[in-house]
Amino acid sequence: GDSVTQMEGPVTLSEEAFLTINCTYTATGYPSLFWYVQYPGEGLQLLLKATKADDKGSNKGFEATYRKETTSFHLEKGSVQVSDSAVYFCALSLIQGAQKLVFGQGTRLTINP
Amino acid sequence: GAGVSQSPSNKVTEKGKDVELRCDPISGHTALYWYRQSLGQGLEFLIYFQGNSAPDKSGLPSDRFSAERTGGSVSTLTIQRTQQEDSAVYLCASSLVSGADTQYFGPGTRLTVL
Fold this sequence. Notes:
The complex is a heterodimer of chains A (113) and B (114).
Chain A: E1 3-6, E2 11-14, E3 19-21, E4 23-26, E5 31-38, E6 44-50, E7 56-59, E8 62-65, E9 75-77, E10 86-94, E11 101-103, E12 107-112
Parallel strand pairs in A: 2-12
Antiparallel strand pairs in A: 1-4, 3-9, 5-6, 5-10, 7-8, 8-9, 10-11, 10-12
Chain B: E1 5-7, E2 10-13, E3 19-24, E4 31-38, E5 42-50, E6 53-56, E7 65-69, E8 75-79, E9 88-95, E10 104-105, E11 109-113
Parallel strand pairs in B: 2-11
Antiparallel strand pairs in B: 1-3, 3-8, 4-5, 4-9, 5-6, 7-8, 9-10, 9-11
């Protein structure tokens, strides 16, 4: 079945460090890919998305590129801030068939000043 | 504009009681989704509505769970005879159209079954 695998957390970094959170997927069809973020005490928010191969999604300094050949959608940020501390979820959604988001297990990120 | 709203924000109930959770989607959004977030299972899909119809109920964990949507807007998730394993945060999301369109999430209802 369709699934998403994220790197294990928690991840702890210092402010201004480079961030990568790995995400790979398995899908029977051609998915759209998403990163959602959940800040402490808040609901899930869409961070960025990409709908076709080689598309790059970007928002708030975060980027992720849809790599069909490696079935990956890794999240990166060049210089993290304390305010980026949150739980990050990679997810996929199929255009055909099931109309649901399939989520990875989430990665908790803590940024220390 | 107003986002997705859910009520109650917190619900504590006793094992065996029935509970109803409510979701108000973004106005004009035709698709509505329910998910469950729990420590052991992560984020799981429960059910999807397109208008008032539910073409995908595959995530409902048992026949104690049901949901309906009326007027193409408000949805109610009902859990009958609650069990302790039902304790979780129940999330509702809506999207303008179905498919791979962006889903917007509500703040969730935290359900605790004692």
